[in-house]
């Protein structure tokens, strides 16, 4: 019985070895001859059974993409969709206003406006009386009529602008607005702080409020509006309450106070020293003489 059992075991082992050899041969045939068929089966996702019923070709799973790659692809698709959408006119206008080109254009316009006003203000000092009879008061009929001409170098527009700032505004103090406009526009063009715009604005504003009534008070009897409508209004009110002397005192205090506050104006005279005083002071200072003791000697009695 034992010998029979041993024989059966050896037969089973031999059969298993033969099956393994056959399986290996079949797999080699699949890799060499049926490689294309296996690829097609993997793409379609179908399982194929070979002639040998014991050998079943399993479908290899595909490698899944990580979540980061999937998110990046989705973000890329969304960006493409956004790019494809045309921007509205309102959005284009806002982007242009925020751009550097618009800022430079505004700066150039401000600089040219300051130059235009400067020329028209200077011309108004000489041609204001003649233009006042032909151009003023303002009306669209006169402004659009090409037959009516102004003596101002900047035409009717310059005449109207200068009349508004000088006659109806602050008089000669209107010239103080020009440095501020020029510096503001130049800084916008260059995109740097070349000129102190805020400092010019502060000093220009303070001087306009002080000089306009001061000039109107000094040149009361003149027909030309040196202080403008603003200066005349302030002086008329102050004279009605304080009189001529009181108004002059207040205005002088305002001018001197501004000079002291800004420039630290000193009222003391500096002591001027003569050359004789400088020579005496130099000689009066004590002098120190150093003596070398090693070379010193005494006289014998």
Topology record:
Elements: H1 2-33, H2 35-44, H3 67-84, H4 89-98, H5 100-134, H6 140-144, H7 155-170, H8 177-190, H9 197-218, H10 228-263, H11 275-284
Helix pairs in contact: 5-7, 5-8, 7-10, 8-9, 9-10
Radius of gyration: 50 Å
User: What are the low-pLDDT stretches, counting only 5+ consecutive residues below 50?
Assistant: 41-57
State the order of secondary-structure elements, H for helix, E for strand. HHHHHHHHHHH
State which percent range the strand residues make up: under 5%
Helical residue percent band = 55-70%
Query: What is the 3D form?
Result: elongated
**Number of DSSP-assigned strands:** 0
Q: Can you give the mean pLDDT?
A: 76
How many H/I helices? Answer: 11
Give a short account of the largest sheet. none
> Structural class of the helices, strands and pairings?
mainly alpha
Q: End-to-end distance, in Å?
A: 157 Å
Outline the structure in words.
- By secondary structure, this protein is an all-alpha fold.
- The protein has a domain at 100-263.
- Helices cover 69% and strands 0% of the residues.
- The chain has helices at residues 2-33, 35-44, 67-84, 89-98, 100-134, 140-144, 155-170, 177-190, 197-218, 228-263, 275-284.
- Helix 5 (100-134) packs across helix 7 (155-170), helix 5 (100-134) runs antiparallel to helix 8 and helix 8 (177-190) packs antiparallel against helix 9.
- The radius of gyration is 50 Å and the shape is elongated.
- The termini are far apart.
- Mean pLDDT is 76; it is low at 41-57.
């Amino acid at each position: 019985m034992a010998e029979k059992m041993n024989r059966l075991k050896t037969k089973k082992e031999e059969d298993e070895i033969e099956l393994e050899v056959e399986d290996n041969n079949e797999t080699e045939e699949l890799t060499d001859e049926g490689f294309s068929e296996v690829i097609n089966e993997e793409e379609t996702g179908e399982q194929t059974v070979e002639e040998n019923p014991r050998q079943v070709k399993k479908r290899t799973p595909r490698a899944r993409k990580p979540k980061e790659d999937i998110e990046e692809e989705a973000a890329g698709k969304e960006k493409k969709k956004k790019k494809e959408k045309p921007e509205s006119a309102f959005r284009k206008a806002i982007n242009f206003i925020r751009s550097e080109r618009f800022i430079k254009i505004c700066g150039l316009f401000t600089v040219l406006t300051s130059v235009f006003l400067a020329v028209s203000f200077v011309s108004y000092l000489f041609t204001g009386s003649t233009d006042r009879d032909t151009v003023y008061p303002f009306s669209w009929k006169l402004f659009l009529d090409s037959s009516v001409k102004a003596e101002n170098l900047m035409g009717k527009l310059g005449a109207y602008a200068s009349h508004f700032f000088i006659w109806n505004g602050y008089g000669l103090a209107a010239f103080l607005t020009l440095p501020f406009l020029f510096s503001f526009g130049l800084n916008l063009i260059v995109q740097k702080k070349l000129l102190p715009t805020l400092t010019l604005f502060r000093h220009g504003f303070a001087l306009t409020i002080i000089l306009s009534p001061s000039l109107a008070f000094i040149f009361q009897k003149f027909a030309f509006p040196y202080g403008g409508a603003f200066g005349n209004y302030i002086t008329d009110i102050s004279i009605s309450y304080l009189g001529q002397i009181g108004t002059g005192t207040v205005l002088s205090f305002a001018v001197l106070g501004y000079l002291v506050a800004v420039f630290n104006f000193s009222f003391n005279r500096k002591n001027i020293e003569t050359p004789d005083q400088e020579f005496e002071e130099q000689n009066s200072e004590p002098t120190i003489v150093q003596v070398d003791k090693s070379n010193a000697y005494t006289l014998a009695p």
